Structures are given as C-alpha cells and as structure tokens.
Amino acid sequence: MSFTYIRDLQPFQFNKKLKVRICRIWRPKLIGSTDQFGGLQCILVDQKTDAIQASVKEIDYDFVAPKIKPGSIYEITHFYTGRNKPSHKIVPHVAQLFFNERTTFKELPTIQPHIPRHRFYLVDYTQLSTRIDKIDILTYVFGHITAIQPLEQKMVGNERLEDKCEVCIENIRKEDVRITLWGNTAKTFDAQALQQSTSPIFAAFTSLKVKQFQGKIVLNSSVSTLIFINPDIPELAAYKTIFNDSTHAVKMLPSSTTQLMTPQYLEAAKKLSVQELNVLDPETHKDTPILCRAAITRFDIRNGWWYKACPSCFKQL
C-alpha cells in the first residue's frame, strides 16, 4: 500500500497509510470539570507541510496514548476519516482522522524529504479584526512576550471560579495584543520561569478565540490551546534579529484587582450618584468603569445579609 498525502484525504475513508510527524498532542478537559477528559487530540503534518487533526475517543485513550509522542514520525495504518467539525476547527482541512485500539503506529527514523517539527497557521496582527467572534476555525499567533499578569481566579458566568493568566505579546512591527489564558492552560503556564529568563522569549499560541473588549482585540484560550516557547519555525529568525538583547525581558503586571484601584483608573471612571445608578441601563454600560461614593446607612437583614465571596479567603468577588 502506498502512502497517502494529507491533502488527498477526504471524509469517510479507510484503508489508507500515512507517513507523518505528530507535532502536538493534548488531552482536553471537559468544560467545567476538573477530572473528566474528552479523549486525546493530535495534529499531524507531512512532507508537503499540510496538517490534519486526529481524535481518540476517551474509551480508546489507554490503547493509543502509550504508542505515540509529540515530535516523532510514524507510519500510521488502520484508522478511518470523518468530516471535520463545522466550528472551532484546529486546522483548515475538510477531513479529520480517528484512531482507536486497532490503529497501528510504526515509529520511523528521521527521513527525507524533511517533515517540519511544527505547523502553525499564523494570523498577522493586522488581520485579527477579521476574526472577531468567528468560530469556524481557531486562531494562531506568534510574538515576543513583553509582559505577564500572574495567575489569579475570576468568576465565570456567576457560577464558578476559573484560573486566569494574561500574556502580552508584540510582533516585529511593535504592534501588541493581549492573550487571556483560562483554566488548565493558565495553571500550567510557567510565568515565573519566563520572568527569570534574561533573553527575549518568543512564543506561538494555538487555537485561540478572538474577542473585542472595550474597543480592543483580546485573544482567549480554548481547551485546545497549546503554547510553544521559542519554536523552530521560519519566523523565529526575524524576531531574534529585532529583539536581540536583554532589555526585552518579560515584565510582571499587577493583578486585576490592583489595577482597578490605581489613581489613574479612579480618575478616568465615570462618577455617578446612587440615584443615577438606579436608572442606569446595565446593558449599554457594561464595559464602562463607574465610581460611586456612598455611605452605608443600614442593612436589610430580614432575609440575612451576604455578598459573593471566595470560599477560601472570603474576599469579595
């Protein structure tokens, strides 16, 4: 059986053979869960530099996971293909692969022609505005890390606390963008190690969602987001030429709570009275910082008195 190129794969096929590198693997947690997973996901790339996603169901995880590792090249047989999902695609391909306990993986030595270690579909910062709220395919960016806001917790949807970390990056034109990492992606991001580095840090961020907040573009991680520090890709050389000295070390930003209480923030906030707050439409002012100075005159304790707080430190949320 001859090898099939990734670009020639179509949905609903079987009896194919691939020669590919597994360039990344991740095990996504189910949203809202701390100990339940949604199987295993992989991105494969071949010598034509095309990529495709492969999925492993949770029931087959223990059969497949021990057989593969990121970075290695494999001859893969006994898999089948399906149609790629209509939204939140990881790579632009019409098909998706499915591995199970019958799938065979034969590890190969380094071969010629070369198969790249990574395959990122990078979006230029000037094109991010065209991706706002688009969910057909997730977004990749690359940049020089300039600052990090350390891990903290934030209430999501008024129902659960979620780990959060923010990263600022810039391109070689010194255009910048902010990335918000959530959940396990935020928790496993080693901000301290990056801060201690005396050399410029460059990173590729995969599978991001593009949003707009207070007129600025913000990128948010998804359950499929992975971060690659100083990856071996063609773009890296140009960045090293521009940011080639220790003055470009990573800065640490204060927490969100500290930022909200700065004199500059309070000065810029819209000042309103309690009477004005009562008639304010929250939908049209949800992104507007507001300052109201008032005195507490009494508490309505007929049904108890409470405020939303962290269950550990009782700090108000």
UniProtKB/TrEMBL annotation:
Pfam families: DUF223, REPA_OB_2
InterPro entries noted in UniProt: NA-bd_OB-fold (IPR012340), REPA_OB_2 (IPR031657), RFA1B/D_OB_1st (IPR003871)
Segments forming domain Replication protein A 70 kDa DNA-binding subunit B/D first OB fold: 3-106
Keywords: DNA-binding
GO molecular function: DNA binding
Cross-referenced PANTHER family: OS03G0429900 PROTEIN
Transmembrane annotation, as ranges: none
Source species of the chain: Prunus dulcis
Residue ranges annotated for the Replication protein A OB domain, each copy included: 141-226
Protein name, entry field: Replication protein A OB domain-containing protein
